[in-house]
Specification:
Shape: globular
Distance between the termini: 14 Å
Number of domains: 1
CATH architecture: Roll
Mean pLDDT: 87
Strand content: over 45%
Helix content: under 10%
CATH class: Mainly Beta
């Protein structure tokens, strides 16, 4: 499954790295749209799969916060 976000296609399984000191790597698990029609992405930590986050797609596409690493 894939979704267009800010002109880029993001797929389930694609990885992103946080642009913070911890530099965690996250893998896309799923997408959903909330009741206000805002697109979200569910991510799981690649080193600790029990750790999961949900972000708006616009946050994931913000290059000051995340950078794409490509598929797993």
């Amino acid at each position: 499954m894939s979704r267009m976000m800010a002109g880029a296609t993001v797929r389930v399984g694609e990885r992103f790295q946080e642009m913070r000191a911890t530099a965690r790597q996250w893998e896309v698990e799923s997408f959903f749209t909330d009741a206000r029609a805002i697109n979200h992405v569910s991510l799981r930590d690649t080193l600790d799969p029990s750790r999961r986050v949900t972000l708006s797609c616009s946050v994931l596409m913000d290059r000051s916060r995340f950078r794409p690493l490509g598929p797993a």
